[in-house]
User: Fold these one by one.
Assistant:
Number 1:
Amino acid sequence: MAVMAAVAVMSSLAATGSTATRAAADGPGPDKPTIRYTEYGIPHIIASNWEGLGTGYGYAAAKDNICTLADTYLMVNAQRSRHLGPEGKTSPGQNQNTTTNLNSDLYFQRIKDNQVVERLLDKPAPDGPEPEVREAIRGYVQGYNRYLTETGVNNITDPACRGAAWVRPITELDVYRHAHAEIIMGSADALLDGQMNAAPPGASPAAQPASSPAKTAAKIRDAMAASRQQSMGSNALAVGSQGVSGGTSMLLANPHFPWQGKNRMWQSQLTIPGKTNVSGASLLGFPAVNIGYNENVAWSHTIATVAPFGLFDVQVDPLNPTKYLVDGVWEQMTSQRVGVDVLKPDGSVSKVTRTLWSTRYGPITTSMQGVALPWVVSAHAVRDVNMDNLRALNSWFRLNQAKDVHDVVNTLETTQGVPFFNTVASDRKGNALYADIQATPNITDEHARSCLTQTGQLLFNQSLRLPNVPPISILDGKRSACDWPEDPNAAAPGLLDPHKQPRLIRSDFVGNANDSAWLANPEQPLTFPRVMGDTSAPRSLRTQELILTAQNRINGTDGLPGKGFTPETMRQLLFADNSRAADLALNATVTMCQNAPFGLILVDGNLVNVSEACPILAAWKNHDYTADSRGSWLFANYWSLLLNGQGIEKLPWRVPFDPKDPVHTPNSLDSGSSAVREAFGRAVLALRKANIPLNAPLSDIQKVTRGGEQIPIHGSISQLGVLNVITPGQVDGKLDIVYGSSFIQQVRFTADGPPQASSVMAYSQSANPNSPHYADQTKLFSAGKWVTERFTEDQIAASPELQTKVLN
């Protein structure tokens, strides 16, 4: 009966247009929001208006991930300590899972006390949400609450929250608070703990004298680099008409998001006939598509090299350290008493309060990414470029309806809502777009030269560069003129003029793998203000791999038949799991191993026999991190030890980096280097101590456990230059994947006809271990397979697994 009802709904829609593609866009929608499920539990939601669309989205999202969503609403309402205790950690994917529930609650309680989100909601569009956003979120709340009412808290099948007192109906304000929390994540992850722990000298026993500017800058750089290597990233490649075989353009979306917690992605298709028809994925709880495609445009986002915050160094009065100097006048910091409920070990609840301090620039922090910024002769204040940003919701709703890449650029410029993301897009007309147009602090190069402190100069400029680490600004807070200036062309105060931000439209390709905009296409290097990233500096190995993959496929020099991308070659090249590091260094490493006297390497005064390792690496011909590759785990451990947190340019290369040839340099590893020998010896020793055979296939080591079944996962860490990034780690005491390829989507446009897309959700649609869609796509991903997407009404109706839910 469910299938018959779905077919009836779609047959009615198909009658309104002459082609299947137009049928999804023309005519009225069904009277009631309707969810059509196809293979792997992918929902295709259709409604006659935005509220109905949000209702369908909210119901379907809650059905798959009620516990994850409820946990998120608990967080943004500052109630984790009340229900889960103050010492617990926040959800995976939030602050690298290091922030305590108490600090998280205090942070979000201050936002609540200051009514930050409420003030933004009171603003009319474009500063506040546009009408269609408000309608969709109103519907989302209805859908979420309907699912919860129908199911009942005690009947939730996910054991993570079954019967939990903190699972409750939500309000529209809950959803906006969640959206705001995601938008400010780029600042909160680095600075939340520092703000919550900040106390004036004498009040905090942890206060320490400040380090020298050089030491402080180096510590912050290293901490930020380590964080970037262990957290979210992305690849995106847009190919225009000159780079596609059998089509007008293509897009590869490959975000590397957390596999657990609030930053999981979730796939859907959202249709209001005549208004919108978009397919892709969003962060859980966003009733729009963040990464996906419509009839004419496909787009993705990558993490950009823009710091969505800045610090201000304020000189404090040594006799009264809550006073600070601005333009020769002492100003009093503002204090705010923030309190949250806390569950005690005996089951009772008490109130914990803390005094938090702020300046005209923003809150005081005493650390950044765990590096101390002592409040002694000066203090550091934070300004967050996204704290007053709900415009991002408008950005994504408009992107969902874009007609071409020029429409994408216009949306990005007029909203300036995208937070800390690049945008990569392609359109049916054959254009490929790269755009780093976002909410960026208005720190021009001239402003930076005038206002950076000594520590700020070291962090902001290239002298301390590491791959993907954004320029961090520390400005002189003693001068009011050093605050971020207002620009008449910007969407909000303190933002950089969007017309100064880089963009590039080409007919061959553009791409990004989390480096700056400089080499979106190496044939046309971009320039831009330093606040947005660096130029003429080494690229990460993943950036090199992305560019070379695009160039070689377009030129037909990659060993595959023909020239230009097809869906098959794009999927094949991503899941080849090739390591750029191995391309550059494997032969030299094998030579070093073979030349070790008697097969021995001295490590910490002990001789390590590496002779067994030499033929294993020599036989690793494909340089790949596919499931059956042998020697790859040994090479990954060796390469991590050799890098030791450094940029690749710091390794012992015979050919150094050349800004005139940035894709191919540095190269030629020095096989005689003692650093190479020692790192290799340490890697062999580490694997033996862990009882891992040196020739173990990757599938024996890199796995996730789902329902008692261990599923091998291919891919590897970003530092190896593997596009299919997979970062293993411990989650709740068990080996799992912490970050990595999440929602992967490939889209091709032709001159006419519907978009052709395939995708795979690496961790599957649901976090519920009792859901049929808890591990189905994970197994698909493990096997290197994809889902052929269904976009038109005819394609949806043809699904052999079609099920429908009409929300009467």
Number 2:
Amino acid sequence: MAKNYINFLQFLLFFVFLTVFSPKVYSQCAGNDGFVTICDVENIANRSVSLFSFLGGSPVPGGTWSEDDGSRGLSTTTGILNAQAIRAGGTYQYTYTAPGAGCAANTAKVLVTIGAFEGFPAPYATKCSDENTYNLFSAFNSTVISPHTNGTWRDSSGNVIPPLLTITNMNGNFQYSYTVPPVPGCDTAPLTTSITLTVIRAPQPGTGRDLLLCGTTDLDGYTAFDVSTLLSGQDPDGRWSGRGITSPSNPVVNLKQIFASYGPGEYAYNYTVLSDNDNCPDKTTMMIITLEKRLDFTGAKIEVEKNICEDEINTATYTATITQGAEAIPDNEYNVTFNVSGPNGGTETIKAFFINGKLSFPVNSAYFRQVGVFHVTVTGITAVDSKGACRNIINNLTTDLEIHTLPYLEGAVLTPEPTCQNKNALVHLTNALRLGDGNYNIRYNITGDNSALGQTANITVTGGSSTFIVPGSLNIKSGVSTITITNITNTATGCTNTATIRGDLIINPLPNAATVNVVVNDYCLNDPVTVTVSGLGTLTDVTVSYMLQDSNLSTLESVALSVTNGKADFVIPASLLLNTGSTIISVLNLKNNITNCDVNLNNVLDSFIIHPIPVKPTVSPLSFCKVDEAAVENLTPKGNQYKWYDSATAAKPLAGTTVLQSGNYYVRETSAAGCTSEPAEVTVTINDSPVPVLNSDGQNFCGLTNPTIGDLSNNTNIPATVVWYDAPDNGNLLSASTRLTEQGRYYGFNFPNSACFSSEYIEVTVALTDCDNVPNDFFIPDGFSPNGDGINDSFVIKDIEFLYPNYTLEIFNRYGNGMYKGDKNKPAWDGMNYEKSGIAGGVAPNGVYFYVLHFNKDNKPPKQGRLYLNR
């Protein structure tokens, strides 16, 4: 590539420039026009060319720059030009505008000539045909500088071609050249470069098609389905993969088994052709086999909310709810097609979601415009995302919606029966011919001598007739009250309507109950019991109803009485008083037999007693342990009404603290009325366990064997049940493993299972000196070290107190002076001078000492020896 930086042509251009622009060179704040030629644009230094440095004269810095030709690459604030950003060779003009005013001219221009550049190609490029297109410019190394774009591409035949090639069907090596035109001042001829493009044919996995089947009904013929039948135009020897593929080379699958095992869904099957060139990737074609499940809505239910009354037609809204049957319906969005019967009916399809087995959707109110029964029938339910492979099962999925008529009372007649004050009144409703048979709630008002508004009652209408009760609480005053029905509601349909029918109710007064009183005295069993009822005022003929409670019970009894001066008596039948004890008579009702009006009485009662003779107490034999020292107060039965005696004829009862003995005792019961029962005999048995017996010499042991409480028990006649304490009273229970001590005192009691703890005990003083044989390991130490370290600080003959309990020990120094005298009560010498004070301050010095041991048993002679003391 020819590059000329300074040549004759540049000189001529410079001369012409000076000649043409010379009238503008004086008094310019922007300086004088200038030029620069850049032939080696690929030089990295040309990324930062300061145009200000090419201005002549004395330009004022701080101005701005502009690109006059749209060449780009210039920073308008710094005047730095990136020559490599210019995309074609040629000459470009840039204008500098100086800051400030007062200059003949404040702009100057710089001409920049850019030499042609054909780029740095990579001679070889390799592409895969599946990339479809290839831009020839991508064969250049653009990390340094891209080639100029004003050149021309040609193929190997010299034909001009666009830089963007379609390589889809190409395969092999192809030659291309790129030529850019020369730029005067830099180039004398066009610049050309070449590239070689290698296109590798991509693997062809073919074109697949998808398959849609109803898995529930269509798969009997697909137990050995060849997936490759869904593919065309593929290279051979590809690899198959997907659900049910057992080998990459075997595309046969059992769709029926797949559906049974994995259910409905989209199953992807891939055919992959492997590439034998790294420039082309493996290629895969995917085929989708969709297996859908037929939904079975058998047993499903549909309900429409709500049935309405005819006065709601214009404002009602409706919602239908489908509940799945035996088969669970997946949560999803569905298209629901339904039909509504009737003069305004029709068919509609809506979208709604099944959630947790239920689907709700609105039903247009325009279908329901008059009284009647309308059938809502679902004819189709299909998932929105379903592809329609299956025909879902829908059987008899229908419901009725009813628009009910209002209840009407026009022409009806209301006839109340006369009643008594505070008593219920029966009201007859007749001639209600516009009411259908059924159940209704009515609302009524009471006016006149009594007043109550907004009262309610429930009636059952048959053939236009019914009755209802006006509660006695609304008939407080005697006189005439008017009953007016203001509203009626059909309880089955909820439909309600207003009304204005009325009738008059006559209310008779009640007897005066305020002064009525009853009195009954106490009686003995089987005596006649007279009842006096008073406070009856001016009544002359009455019926009194009463009831017995407490010890004697009766149903409601009634008796007709003639009244004299406000008072009447009667006798309670003996058959009602069969039990003794307290009985309450309650007079519950008083009726005026002339008007048949009665009044219930409250708290008109009296209590009386039928005194019994107490029966002999029920008793059982009693037994106690002697050690418990049971007294009369421990006998049963107990209570203040019971007294205990030591004979059947005794008059004075025993004190509660009297200690019991085995024998017979007698108990009587006295009633509050002073009645005393026959005596009941109770046999009392005081039990004790025999005291333990110690075997002969059972208290003697050899201390060398470390005897325990268990060993002491074994020396009794009852080793299994004897227990030992360290004191006869309030002592501590000793375990069988407790070690016995010399001259220790132990107290044994007999405590058999499920029997009494013995009241007596044995006292045993243990001796641990019953040792007949001297053990082989018995020895007398020959030294000790009383230095206070806790080891061998005393001279002690181990276990000698058990073998020779009466022994004595004397120790002398080498001068024959006595140092120590000991026995079982003083068994250890600690190295102090016990016999003579003043020798070494009472401390025996280190050295050899001599002992004499008197066994004092079995005429055994004393033993002499020596020992060494070393502190």
Number 3:
Amino acid sequence: MIDLLDGARWRLARTDAGSVLDPRDLTHDLEWFDAVVPGTVAAALGDSLAVNPDDHDWWFVADVSTGDHRRVRLTFGGIATRAQIWIDGIHRASVTSIFVPEILDLTDCGGTVAIAIHVESLAARLKSRRPRGRWRSSLVAAQGLRHERTTMLGRAPVYGPLPVPVGPWRPVSMTVVPDVRRVELSTAVSGADGILTVRAELDAPGVARILIDDKGFDFGTVERIDRSVTLPDVELWWPHTHGRPRTYRVALEVDGTVRHQAVVGFRTVHLDRTEGGAVLTVNGEPIFCRGGTWTPLDPVRLWSPEEDLRAALEQLRSAGLNMVRVVGTLVYEQPEFWLLCAELGIMVWQDVMFGTLDPPTDEAYMALVDRELDAFAATVSANPALMVVSGGSETQQQPTMLGLAAEDQRMVLLDKTVPDFIALRLPGVAYVTSSPSGVSDELHTHVGDGIAHYFGVGGYLRPLSDIRTAGVRFAAECLAFSVPPERGQVEKFFGSAAVAGHHPDWKAAVPRDRGSSWDFEDVRDHYVRTIFGVDPHLIRRDDAELYLDYGRAAIVEAFTEALGHWRRASSGCAGALVLTLRDSVPGAGWGIVDTAGVPKAPFYALARASAPLALLLSDNGLDGYSVELVNDGPACSGSIRVVLHASRGSHEFEQAVTVQANASIALTVDSIVGTFTDANHAYRFGSRTYSAVTVLFLNDDGVEVTRTTALVGAQSRQNTVGLSAEVVEKYSGTWELTVLSRWPAQYVCVDIDGFEASDSWFHLAPNEPRTLTLVGRDASAPRGHVRALNSVERASVVPKVVSGNS
């Protein structure tokens, strides 16, 4: 369908709050700027933006030719936040929610349509007196935001120094009025069959049919459609870690012309919350959900090209992550995001856009929420990636932490409005009242009950052992740290690592809870001190890069311990979503990927623990090392090999194993070796016998599938561990890097600018080569170095042999 607004020139001007209320009063002496739609004031003005956009009124205007078309439909996908829409000098609509689209059908168009969007100052609106909530939010200063349907981006300091979004942040389109006014799709599974239900309203009676891939179903001449069709032996949609994410293309034809297209999938979803748990089952199989909270790739414009979304989601998919959570203090994602998640097999947990504020219950507010939910349902109609809808982020935790009794914190939106809507419009999707939320009691702060936000290891400075004792059942948020970007990215963002610590530019990106006397860099320093026994502040004075490396390694240690425990069958945990997947501003934010899309250190730890076939190695003290092989795919067999590295060589032991589909097997190193070894030096009878332990899984052909290595005891920093690195071109743009160390190498980092390594920040056992893949992003040949935390000397990576393409 042709968009008549495609290529239209949008202009933007600022006026004082309330000073201009009619587009005819806009004068030519105003300062006008070119604007991009979809976009925001901050996206248009960039570095020249010297004011808080909320403090002023803003006008977006455009003139568009309608050609010979007399009837057109003008769709405003979303305007932030309160606005008036004028068409040809006539007021046509009032916008009171960032999340609700406005649709205007225009008739008798005169060839050119003048569009003016008057975005009103939200700061001026917040000055009016309105009823207070039952509690005060700790997330934002302006408590009046409880009455506004808007995002917390730019308004909650915890998300970094971002400008507030103001303007048409979603597309504005103009099309010829279609024959179809509304289409709703839903899917269900009955035995081996898939059932697609189609509901649609046509402008006039027409011959309608639905196409599902290559199969057609005729509806005859109709004006309304409310029909279900059956697809025999349907192929189910699976998260990519457990199977094929099969989708079907659907097209609605009216009088032989396609009027609506969509992508649907067939799957069953159930969230088992019995016995205080939260186990997501898809197609009857329990799924361990791993991933993180999603932030907009462009938090200023709030709109991303499809290719950028694809690259970001494919990066998560390649790391074995299978779920993202769209958080209730941010924004709903654009349609392309949902289509890509369905295609790539990435499950989505969607919060309704409620946060820590007490939502009103007046009729106007509730009507806005109904329209918001309706718009969301239209976006995700029959999309198989949608698994869970939550009534918001910390909507119940905030009043609980403030000491309100259970009855005093009840919300009709969470208890009735949202669940009733989900049951009616999004059948087959799981619902939880809030993230977090308890099951067996009314305290939504107990991490061992239902859905948790677990920051025991992290903000609350608990020891790593707390991960095993806390009894987390499902962490919808966890492991928040101020994660430094990799060395090359620090140089690109800040010039050098010398800014790390207290430089204002660096500190601006470090997350901090509003009103706290500490930030998440203090949290990271605490774990550096407790894990490695060094003073991070003294190290920072002498060697800023080493200081950041210790911080990176401490976070990797925490991620490895947490995911390595939670993914075990015996842990009772069914999911872990880290806070967050990506930074919103350059620097040491919560993200495991920086704003440029480059992975940070904990990304690799999360990927190792999240692989569909993963080896988990755990130090159980006097019981030695335990090994668990976790398998999300079909049944497989092979052998587990244990290599014990001693000063006079290594010793290998092997045991044949078979692991069933979507299952795991747990063993101990001692059981594989067959004798007592004290491999982890827990008994401390004399000096350490072994310096490292490597466990590998080999398939029936003897090919290595996965491995993991643990270093025994504390590692002292020394001049050299004998690191060496050799790189050979495999084919154009892809290289193989082989890393070797004479002595145990702690947290080996592959630092090659312009290339992404298949693994990094791992332990390397003595004389045990490790071959990695390097994929180029923009460099012709890899040049850089490999270093280890316990070594001053590092190994240079310089191509020595360049073969022809193969």
